[in-house]
């Protein structure tokens, strides 16, 4: 068995840290969106675990929908081109939309999605990300809700991939450079 844990140099956000923070964010959203029946949009595939844990921990009524986009493909760096692989199933007009992302790197994916959804005339639109790489932004972007900020490391786990691997690690860790260099 190839053990993906061997490719991790350092655990940055442990399972316990993630759970605690996700529950805090969910409690905040529950208060802020009480009576609003927010439409939680999962940005596949990276946000999948964060999305599931966040929605499960929220106590208010909510809708779920999924969009799949890709900017990285199989490379380790952003191409800057966002491709929609699967759009939302339903119309978001007059809905209170919350875009759920795992990570902001260049910010191009979230920026693109925010503008795309804005044009569909929702009642409101907010963004939440678990991890924000604050000094890597290539555009003006600030998530409305954020779990953690971090510096410039290549991280995987809890949905985050390198070449589609490592997503199912239960924590977020820094990948050893020799695995992708
Ligand atoms: C990753 C990540 C974010 C985006 C962040 O997705 O999950 O969606 O890149 O990068 P950015 O801020 O530079 O746009 P990716 O395109 O790798 O697809 P995936 O979620 O299926 O892994
Ligand atoms: Mn993604
Ligand atoms: Mg990816």
From TrEMBL:
Might you name a Gene Ontology BP term for this protein?
GMP salvage
What SUPFAM superfamilies does this protein map onto? Answer: PRTase-like
The record ties this protein, via InterPro entries, to: HGPRT, Hxn_phspho_trans, PRTase-like, PRTase_dom
Q: Phosphoribosyltransferase domain spans which residues?
A: 15-162
* Cofactors, names only: Mg(2+)
The protein's location, in the record's own words, is: Cytoplasm
**EC code:** 2.4.2.8
> Which is one Pfam family of this protein?
Pribosyltran
Q: Name one GO molecular function term.
A: magnesium ion binding
Q: Which reaction does it catalyse?
A: GMP + diphosphate = guanine + 5-phospho-alpha-D-ribose 1-diphosphate; IMP + diphosphate = hypoxanthine + 5-phospho-alpha-D-ribose 1-diphosphate
Keywords annotated in UniProt: Cytoplasm, Glycosyltransferase, Magnesium, Metal-binding, Nucleotide-binding, Purine salvage, Transferase
The UniProt family comment states: Belongs to the purine/pyrimidine phosphoribosyltransferase family.
Output this protein's name. Hypoxanthine phosphoribosyltransferase
From what organism does this protein derive? Flexilinea flocculi
Q: What is the lineage of its organism?
A: Bacteria, Bacillati, Chloroflexota, Anaerolineae, Anaerolineales
């Amino acid at each position: 068995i190839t053990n993906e844990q061997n490719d991790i140099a350092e655990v940055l956000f442990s399972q316990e840290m993630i759970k605690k923070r996700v529950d805090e964010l969910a409690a905040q959203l529950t208060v802020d969106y009480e009576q609003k029946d927010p439409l939680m949009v999962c940005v596949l595939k990276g946000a999948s675990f964060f999305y599931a844990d966040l929605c499960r921990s929220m106590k208010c009524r909510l809708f779920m929908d999924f969009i799949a986009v890709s900017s990285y493909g199989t490379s380790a760096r952003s191409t800057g081109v966002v491709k929609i692989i699967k759009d939302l199933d339903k119309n978001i007009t007059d809905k209170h939309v919350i875009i759920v992302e795992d990570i902001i790197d260049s910010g191009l994916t979230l920026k693109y999605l925010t503008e795309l959804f804005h044009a569909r005339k929702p009642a409101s639109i907010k963004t939440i990300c678990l991890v924000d790489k604050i000094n890597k932004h290539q555009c003006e972007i600030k998530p409305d809700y954020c779990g953690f900020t971090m510096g410039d490391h290549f991280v995987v786990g809890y949905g985050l991939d390198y070449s589609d691997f490592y997503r199912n690690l239960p924590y977020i860790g820094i990948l050893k450079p020799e695995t992708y260099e």
